[in-house]
Design a protein that fits this description.
By secondary structure, this protein is of the alpha+beta class. The chain contains 15 helices and 11 strands.
């Protein structure tokens, strides 16, 4: 069929959007679906049609019913000096955002950090989780299923690891019980991939064994105790993805010169806003705006944007130490990858290349960079609030 014939069939309801891929190449299919929308709604989609990525490859791995590509402005912040275990250098950080003043704010934080000798960053833990829900006949049977997991861990570990050359089952903990429902939390290491697909397949294999050996019936492969793409206390306590901490001691003169305020004022704002204010609101995120930095760097490097909700968790601390400022951020739940998923998209790969972390054996280094970037943005915003500069900065940059 010609493109015109396919568009007519789409308009008449004689063909489904996904069926276009059976008739033409991925690039042509995207063009056809876009032209279908233009005709149906009498609109123009010229900008969505301009892109450089390989649509054939993207359609096979990353997107369905493609019509083109979203474009966001991308800026750069830095140099940002990092004294990490895996990242020991200065970096320039690519940030994709439509929020005016954000890159400028992060850049100011990076300048403050670099002038102070760099930010210290460390990966505390590196895990990925999957927690199915299993239905039993009674609470007593639930306890029996829990014990089955405990007694058979060594064998279950072999079963899980038979599905992957990179993943390792570290533990099944906690195993929660709610009456006749059991929620075992499978904890894996996954190397440089974010690992959700990996742990899902491995866990499914274990559930097959469960079904053949017990009366337990798994209701859903995810029972929401994982906890994936949602804010949850268990992820703050147990960690998920990369758990990272970053901190710095900023000399008094640099606090005054770069942030136009004092360590005492920043400490007070942090306590009143990030700690007490968050507690008053019942928040699980005791920080000013981790999500801003996490989202911008995620979009620039092909991470799963939905994991921003997890990356937004964490606690900011600030202390006045005889005029010097001690400042830290902790991100207990940062799912990131340097291979697989969206990282293979051309623009995302370029973003990772700017950071020097594209490819294997780079995920922990990348996590240290993300945490350091979060500290830069957090420091700048809390400093601006302490100095009373936030509204002025937005106004001067034309951000109404």
């Amino acid at each position: 069929m010609s493109s015109e014939e396919i568009i007519d069939k789409l308009l008449n309801g004689e063909m489904k959007l996904y069926q276009v891929d059976n008739e033409v190449s991925a690039k042509e299919a995207a063009d056809i679906r876009r032209k279908f929308l233009e005709k149906k709604y009498s609109i123009k989609l010229d900008n969505i049609s301009n892109y450089s990525l390989d649509m054939q490859r993207a359609s096979a791995r990353n997107i369905e019913n493609s019509i083109g590509v979203l474009q966001l402005p991308m800026g750069i912040a830095g140099p940002l000096k990092i004294n990490g275990q895996f990242c020991k250098r200065e970096v320039f950080v690519p940030l994709a955002t439509s929020e005016g003043a954000l890159v400028a704010s992060i850049n100011r934080g990076a300048s403050t950090i670099t002038a102070s000798g760099g930010v210290n960053a460390r990966v505390i833990s590196d895990i990925m989780t999957r927690a199915p829900v299993i239905k039993c006949g009674s609470a007593i049977e639930s306890l029996e299923i829990k014990q089955w997991f405990i007694d058979n861990f060594t064998e279950l570990k072999e079963v899980a690891e038979s599905t992957t050359s990179h993943g390792k089952l570290l533990k099944i903990d906690p195993i929660l019980i709610a009456g006749s429902y059991v929620y075992p939390r499978f904890v894996y290491s996954t190397g440089d991939s974010m690992g959700m697909n990996m742990v899902t397949i491995a866990t499914e294999k274990i559930l097959d064994k469960l079904s053949s050996e017990t009366n337990g019936r798994h209701i859903a492969l995810s029972g929401n105790v994982c906890v994936d793409k949602k804010a949850a206390a268990i992820n703050i306590i147990e960690g998920r993805g990369k758990s990272v901490v970053a901190d710095i001691l900023i000399p008094e003169d640099i606090v005054l010169k770069k942030l136009k305020t004092t360590a005492e004022a920043i400490e007070e704002v942090n306590i009143a806003k990030n700690l007490i204010g968050s507690a008053v609101a019942g928040s699980t995120a005791y920080n000013a705006h981790y999500a801003n930095m996490v989202a911008a760097i995620f979009l620039a490097t092909g991470q799963d944007a939905a994991h921003v909700v997890e990356g937004s968790l964490g606690i900011t601390t600030a202390e006045n130490r005889d005029g010097d400022l001690y400042f830290s951020v902790n991100l207990p739940d940062l799912p990131v990858a340097t291979v697989g998923g969206g990282t293979s998209l051309e623009v995302a790969n370029e973003g990772l290349n700017i950071l020097g972390v594209a490819g294997s054996n780079k995920a922990r280094e990348f996590a240290e960079i993300v945490a350091s970037t979060v500290l830069a943005g957090e420091l700048s915003l809390v400093g601006a609030l302490a100095a009373g500069h936030l509204a002025r900065a937005h106004k001067e940059l034309g951000r109404g």
